[in-house]
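name: query_chain
kind: protein
chains: 1
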Amino acid sequence: MVKRILLFSIAFFGWHFSLAQIPQRAQTSSDSIMITIFLKHQQDKSLKQIQEIQNQNKFLEMFPPKEARVISWYVMMGIGQVVTVRIPAKDLRTLNLTIENGAWGAYTTEFYPTYDFVPVWQNAIKNKK
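structure:
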């Protein structure tokens, strides 16, 4: 009987802890949007100059705004930085002002509405079979 209880306990806790290892998607409101932002390095400035402007503008203190969740943030050689954030639609202006106040002068910026294509792609492959 003790062996059964012990085995059950091990199995239960093993299963419970294995669930903790599965990455969970953060909850997002149904009106959230994804935006990809290109922070293009201004070619007439050195990296040190860009960092000085960022520091003067307090860019890293204000970006990303608390309403946003960073989905990805990459450096693209020859371009600059490419950041994708998810943000409630009502806070789009906050995101825009954060970039205007923090990044301008150091970067040329571009914004692109973005969506997750992986489910579409997976569905297309599944339907093709």
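note: Helices lie at 2-20, 47-57, 59-62, 92-102, 118-128.
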